[in-house]
């Protein structure tokens, strides 16, 4: 899979949100799957550009448990939870 820069991710999301191109068209153009572009769009809509600028973070055990408890209590999917908390993966 192709390594996609932050700028390319932001441009891909903006291209999709402009409504002139499909996820598949954009994904094929930059060498990723439509599912990946869809995830970028979801995260962008929840957290804006900041979602792509965040670097690796170490989370405390308490924070991790809070995220997992939220997922368990609300029945939120792991993808939606990740977007909500602006993390790469909740579990």
UniProtKB/TrEMBL annotation:
Spans through the membrane: none
Top-level taxonomic group: Bacteria
Start and end residues of each Insertion element IS150 protein InsJ-like helix-turn-helix domain: 8-51
Family under the similarity heading: Belongs to the IS150/IS1296 orfA family.
SUPFAM superfamilies, per database record: TrpR-like
GO molecular function: sequence-specific DNA binding
Protein's name according to its UniProt entry: Transposase and inactivated derivatives
Pfam families to which the protein is assigned, alphabetical: HTH_28 (PF13518)
């Amino acid at each position: 899979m192709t390594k996609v820069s932050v700028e390319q991710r932001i441009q891909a999301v903006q291209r999709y949100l402009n409504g002139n191109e499909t996820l598949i068209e954009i994904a094929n153009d930059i060498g990723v799957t439509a599912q990946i572009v869809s995830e970028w769009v979801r995260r962008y809509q929840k957290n804006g550009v900041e979602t792509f600028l965040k670097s690796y973070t170490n989370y405390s055990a308490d924070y991790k448990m809070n995220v997992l408890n939220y997922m368990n209590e609300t029945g939120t999917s792991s993808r939606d939870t990740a977007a909500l908390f602006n993390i790469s993966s909740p579990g």
